[in-house]
Amino acid sequence: MHEEIFPHKSDNFHTNGNEILILGIGNYLMGDEGVGVHFVNTIDESEFPQNITFMDGGTGGFLLIPYLESHRIAIIVDATMDGKETGTISLLKPKFSNDFPLSLSGHNFGLKDMVEILTMFDRMPDIYLYTITIDNMDPMVTELSPKVQASLALVKTKILDLLEELKTPKSNLIES
Question: How do the pLDDT tens digits run along the chain, 176 residues long?
């Protein structure tokens, strides 16, 4: 019989009983780099299904592990400097740290490390990573540029569409 060294227990504190996490990450004090944080802090949660945990992850790094491992699905919104037009939204479904783009901003070294840890302990949720292209980080700026600000409504629509896709007759992940 195989006994886990670090047994995993269901954690209602980090999930509020929900199976889906919408996590905005980024540095709010670096202009467009904080787009994920702006996203989760400005959406109207009543427009979303009820069984979702919304979280401002900031630059939380390893502190976010209990939240990620406690949800079956994690939808992450973050900035990227990938050379595309500012405000471009891309969806990635990374399974390993190598699947994350190299162009994610600096705080995401922690995100890649978290993925390695979650994979090692077989606690990796299904991750849907929405990246929003930025062209620079502005220290001590809390506002988003107009193009990045405009992308927030579109990323919300894309996430709502994804949640609809995840709602299948076989799945009870999404409550109507």
Answer: 455 555 556 677 788 889 999 999 999 999 999 999 999 999 999 999 988 999 999 988 888 989 999 999 999 999 999 999 999 999 999 877 777 766 665 555 567 778 888 888 888 899 999 999 999 999 999 999 999 999 999 999 999 999 999 986 655 556 55
According to DSSP, residue 37 is labeled: H
CA dihedral 152→156→159→161, nearest 10 degrees, is: -130
Residue 69's CB is within 10 A of a number of other CB atoms, namely 20
In sequence order, the β-bridge partners of residue 127 are: 74
Name the pTM for this structure. Answer: 0.87
Q: Alpha-carbon distance 80 to 119, whole Å? A: 23
d(CA 123, CA 100): 18
CB 119 within 8 A of CB 96: yes
If we measure between CA atoms, which residue out of 91, 57, 90, 87 comes closest to residue 71?
57
